[in-house]
Specification:
Blueprint: H1 18-24, H2 27-30, H3 34-50, H4 56-75, H5 88-100, H6 113-149, E1 154-159, E2 162-168, H7 169-194, E3 196-197, H8 213-220, E4 224-225, H9 229-234, H10 237-264, E5 271-273, H11 291-314, H12 328-350, E6 353-355, H13 357-364, H14 371-380, H15 385-402, H16 411-415, H17 425-428, H18 431-436, H19 446-464
Parallel strand pairs: 3-4
Antiparallel strand pairs: 1-2, 5-6
Helix pairs in contact: 3-4, 3-6, 3-8, 4-5, 6-7, 6-12, 6-19, 7-10, 7-19, 10-11, 10-12, 11-12, 14-15
Length: 465
């Protein structure tokens, strides 16, 4: 086992209490930053060499040692078990010293674990944000594919969970496409703020060595460097903002899941989920449960909790770094894991469902969903909308009393309310006309929806270029 006490223990004469040491230890979870921290260490080493702190020989020896450590971790399954390091940063330094001797002790010159941690965290998170955006892209593609598989399908649209107006199934798919498009935009914005280098800020006051921070930033692919060392080591805005962006992703996924859970129920019977994304009951043989969707819905609350935890952790901290901030890692790590998995499962669900077109079309023609069209018909005859609204309400009430839909009434029934209504009302109330009339930008007319589908496909193709 590698001894790590000497990495910071010069001030101390007694060993840490075993329970405190366990409480203080973060290696069990922050080892995920291992590769990112190696990269940060290599860049810092180069910065020290360029500043004249390390000789070329020392620099090459340190960098070779760091890459050797990284390679060994790939093939040694127990590599991370054989240590008592309190965190991944101490682990790497102790391995380096063990491998190359005292030269390894020079690597930490001009930096603190405070700016080292922040750098590794940003490097790691930057890549994860890119990966999440790619998964969102794939989910959007599955929505477009589902829309095109049943391009002409009609479903009832809802407000207050009451049938409201008919829409195309593709219009529903595109609604979620738009939500996830905004999610990608937010992730891009977070990525830009993550992509700033804090290394060189040291513990809080900056480094005393002439390290070219901008050159180090360029080597690591950062767009720039932090402007204030005090802020740089105590900033976790980027982590909170990232979890906030993920919280909105989970809001959208949860709403998506809730829609499909309802649509898959016996009461709706709008969709059929394949066996690949369903489970059964241990007691009731007939059951087919949408567990994948329910888990997505459940995990949303978990991510919201992480955002609240991060905000609560940071709100009362004095400048600059405080150990409380160690709590940021698990919240962000768990957010990354569960958002990625939820997005992937949502995509699998979209590729494993079938819309029951006859059932949804029937539902879209029942419940007076064309009442607004009758009001619009009267408006086009010169009737003020409020007057038309009131008149149609009376027609609907009459239809309910005799158990008939609007398009099942006869002309005499309509003319009891308004003599302006003529035979052309039946065309105006047809499902096809109802859909076609919503032909403004963003509407559910087939013309607009098919155009929006093409635009959505083109936008995804541009992202792949």
């Amino acid at each position: 086992m590698t001894d790590t006490k000497k990495l910071w223990g010069g001030r101390f004469t007694e060993s840490a209490d075993a329970t405190f040491a366990k409480f203080n230890n973060s290696f069990t979870f922050d080892k995920r930053l291992f590769e990112a921290d190696i990269r940060g260490c290599v860049a810092h080493c180069e910065g020290l060499f360029q500043a004249g702190v390390l000789t070329r020989s020392e620099s090459e020896r340190i960098k070779t040692g760091l890459w050797t450590i990284l390679k060994r971790s790939d093939f040694d399954k127990k590599y991370f078990e054989e240590t008592d390091a309190e965190d991944v940063h101490s682990f790497i330094e102790s391995k380096l010293i063990h491998l190359i001797g005292d030269t390894g002790r020079k690597l930490h010159t001009g930096r603190s674990r405070n700016d080292q941690v922040a750098t590794a965290f940003r490097l790691w998170l930057r890549e994860e944000i890119t990966e999440i955006s790619k998964i969102v892209h794939e989910l959007q593609k599955s929505l477009i594919d589902a829309a095109e598989r049943q391009k002409d399908a009609v479903i009832p649209g809802y407000t207050h969970l009451q049938r409201a107006q008919p829409i195309l199934w593709a219009h529903w798919c595109l609604a979620y496409f738009e939500m996830f498009d905004r999610d990608k935009e937010r992730l891009d914005e977070v990525w830009r703020r993550v992509n700033i280098l804090p290394l060189g800020s040291a513990a809080l006051a900056g480094t005393a060595y002439e390290i070219d921070r901008e050159a180090v930033a360029k080597e690591l692919g950062f767009e720039g460097v932090t402007a204030n060392s005090l802020d740089a080591v105590s900033d976790r805005d980027f982590a909170i903002e990232f979890v906030g962006a993920c919280s909105l992703i989970m809001v959208h996924l949860s709403r998506f899941a809730e829609d499909l859970i309802l649509y898959a129920s016996s009461e709706f019977q709008f969709i059929e989920l394949s066996d690949a994304v369903s489970t059964g009951s241990s007691l009731m043989p007939q059951k087919k449960n949408p567990d994948a969707l329910e888990l997505i819905r459940g995990k949303a609350g978990r991510i919201f909790g992480h955002q609240t935890a991060l905000l609560s952790m940071m709100k009362g901290l004095p400048m600059a770094y405080n150990k409380d901030m160690q709590e940021d890692k698990e919240a962000v790590f768990d957010t990354v894991d569960n958002v990625k998995l939820s997005l992937q499962v949502a995509e699998i669900v979209m590729r494993n469902l079938h819309l029951k077109e006859e059932r949804t079309r029937q539902a879209a023609t029942k419940g007076y969903l064309n009442a607004t069209e009758l009001a619009d018909y009267l408006v086009n005859k010169g009737v003020p909308f409020r007057t038309a609204h009131d008149s149609v309400g009376k027609v609907v009430l009459y239809g309910i009393s005799i158990g008939k839909e609007l398009n099942e009434l006869n002309l005499v029934d309509f003319q009891k309310v308004s003599k302006l209504i003529e035979n052309d009302v039946f065309e105006a109330l047809s499902l096809e006309k109802t859909l076609a009339s919503k032909n403004q930008i963003g509407g559910t007319s087939p013309e607009r929806v098919f155009q929006a589908l093409e635009e959505a496909k083109n936008s995804l193709e541009r992202e792949n270029e």
